[in-house]
Write a structure and sequence with these properties.
Spore Coat Polysaccharide Biosynthesis Protein SpsA, Chain A, 7 strands, 7-stranded mixed sheet, 392 residues, 11 helices, alpha/beta, globular
Amino acid sequence: MNALATALVAAPVLAALYAYVVYPLILWVVATIRPRRVEPQRVGIPLPYVTITVPIYNSVASVRQTLDRLLEVDFPRDRLQILVISDASTDGTDDVVREFAGRGIELIRLPERLGKTYAENLAVNVAKGEIIVNVDATVLVPPGSLTPLVRAFDDPTVGVASGRDVSVGGVDGGGTNPESSYVRYEMWIRDLETAVGSIVGASGCFYGFRRCIHAKALPPQFSWDFASALIAQKQGYRAVSVPAAVCIVPRTPEVRIELKRKVRTMARGLGTLFYLRDLMNPVEYGGFAFMLISHKLFRWLPYLLSPLAIVALTVLATHSTTARVLTVLLLFGLLAGAAGIRTRAALPSRPLALAGFVLASLVAGFMAWWELFRRAQMATWDPTPRARGIVA
C-alpha cells in the first residue's frame, strides 16, 4: 500500500521533470552532436502570394490596433491579401473592420457562431495565397516579422512556420511575469526541436502554412495551430520555428482570466492529440513520435495525475513525518496560489505570482482532462482580454 501511494506521489513529479528538464537536455545533446543539415539558401526566389487570415469574435477593443499593424508589414502589397473572418461578432467588431475596406482588408462574416477552427477551415477556401498566415486578433505583428516567416517556405521541406511569441504587459513591455518566462522557455524548446528536425506544434498567435496542409477541414472542436504541425508531418513536411518572426502577445491582466483561456487551449490540444494519435507511433514516425510524446503528452500527464498524488500524499501523512511536512508545504503552496489567482491587479511579489501561475496551470490542466473525458465540444471561443498600449 505504501509503495503504491509513494508511486502515485512521485508519478506527476517524474513526468514533469522528464518533460521540462530531461527532454530539453536530450534535444540539446542531439542538436549539438547531430544537427539537422541546413538547406543552402536559394537566392532570387520571388516572394509567394500570401494571405493573412484573422479569425475574430467580439474583439472591438483590439482589432483596430491589430489591423493597423498588419497594414504596416514590410511585404509587397500586390503579393498580400488580408482577410478577416468574423464568427458572428455582436459588439461592433465588424463595423470597425469595414472601415478598413478602402485599405484592402476583406471581411467575411459567418451567419452564426461556429468557432475559430470553422472560420480557419472556411478561410482556406477564400484565400488567394500559396502561403496562408494566421494571426490572432489580440496580438501585434511588428512590421519586419512577416517576411522572415514567409521566407522559411523557401525551404521546400517546410510545411509550417511558427512565429516567436514575446509575452509583454504594460506600456514598458515588462517581461518578468511567470507567463513571460514560460513563453521564453517554450520558444527555446521550439528552437531546439527545429534544430533537430521539426516542432510539434505552432504558435496560434502567428504562424504560416502551405495551403495543402489545411486542404481537409479539421473538426471544429480541435486546434489548427497544433494540428498543422502534425498534418505537415503526415504529408512529408516539417514544421519550424522562425526566431525573426516576432509576435507581441500582451498578457492578460488577471490570472483568473488566463485560467479560462488555459482550460480551453489545453482541452482542445488534448483532443487534437488523441484525434491524430497515430503520430505517437514511434514505429511509423520515429523521432517525431518521440518528440510529440515528450513535449505534449508528458507535459499534460501531471495535470491528470496530480489529484491522485495529493490523495496518496494525504494517506502517507498519517504515518510518515516526511509526508506530513510535504503536505503542510503543499497546503501553503495551494493557499499562496489561491491568493495569486484572486489578486485582481498586478501581483505584488514574484513568489505569489509564481504560485498563482502554477496553481492556475494545475487547475486548468485537470479541467482540460475532464473536458476531454466528458467529450465536451469546445468549438466557440471568447476573446482573451489583454493589456493594450504595448510598445512593440
